[in-house]
# Entry
Amino acid sequence: MSRRKAMLGSGSGWILPTVLLCLYGFFSNLRPSEPFLTPYLLGPDKNLTERQVFNEIYPVWTYSYLVLLFPVFLATDYLRYKPLILLQGISFIVTWFMLLYAEGVLAVQFLEFFYGVATATDIAYYSYIYSVVDVSRYQKVTSYCRSATLAGYTIGSVAGQILVSVANWSLFSLNVISLTCMSVAFATSWFLPMPQKSLFFHQRSNYPISKEIKGINAGNVSDLKYEPGWEDMEVNIPLNKTECKMDKLSVQEQTANFLEVLKVLWQDFLQCYSSRPLLCWSVWWALSTCGYFQVINYSQGLWEKVMPSQNSEIYNGSVEAVSTLLGAVAVFAVGYVKLSWSTWGELALSMFAILIAAAVYVMDTVRNIWVCYASYVLFRSVYMLLITIATFQIAANLSMERYALVFGVNTFIALLLQTLITLIVVDSSGLGLDIFTQFKIYAGYFAVIALIFLLSGICSSIRKYQRHEEIQARSSSDS
# Structure
């Protein structure tokens, strides 16, 4: 115990897991081949047709991500994060190994399934750090981890573009580099300390996390509060596993514990979404994320139709890097935006959704690759700005367990909607529409989102005005 106290007192116990997690995030996102995935599959290396890639292969990722999300969410907490991070590393390696050597539609569909596993287990990466550092360092270590992934993705995109355009490397060689980076990330993950606690299944008696939402105000999500004393709790754990033993539970006790966790999650779900502001931001999160996934998944296919990579030089890597950097700038600027989101949030979301819809529509109708690139950069930047605002509004004062639950539910709803769109619009067993028609539908989808929030914002403003008039009328009658 004294050794643990000393570690906490020195403030250095969080450095090792944070550094290792940042290294893992950096190398797992250092994928120079990813901006060129569609040209690679359509090119001589795989020799697949556009219909096979867009209508038969890409939908598999959406389906597998949806099916795996909830069980992975529970397994992440039950197995205490690290095993799922290792699973993600293995899945990345299998994905890129198959990308190099798999042949045929069925094999590449299996590749997409493993990529779905890797994507679904991303929750383990972003929640691991909260089990091994103090609450006071949550914001700092979160920024470090997200910055590491952002840096890895940006550097990978730039490196891929330089190697293709300047050094004339083949797309196969880029995938070799990506596989090497995945292997380095996997090796790094082995050295992560194994957490001894988690948010739901492995709590200790001295971690009294609140199960009540206090003081919900219909006009402000920030009225959701932590349990008093939450900020002062010790959540660091010894890096030496032998210093702390997990209680051995019988099968019956483990089953009862599992059912109790599910019951608590359901109660928390009902309480969280009874708050109208939180529900509003969550609806926007789910709807917009669904459309965002569809656009980024098939944007390379659109660019390939506008300007085939076999006939001209492409700049997919540069576009991905620029859009990521501008998105990061937009995210940074959020901290300086002074706006009453409880009052004007819905109307602002509506206006920005119109801008996103316009960007997608221009990307689809103006058959110029540079216009497509510029529209894509605008689309990603605006989305990253808004999703950051939504994230903050939802999570500002939720406890960590509610934070994980709400974002998990929102992501699941987004994937469910995306699966329906994919099944109807994209999949060859559905309509199997061509890429240009798909993007017209996506533009219309965001236009519908804009209309929904415009009407909701107008109704909210009218209600607030009526309440204000009623208060003034009462004040006049009382005086």
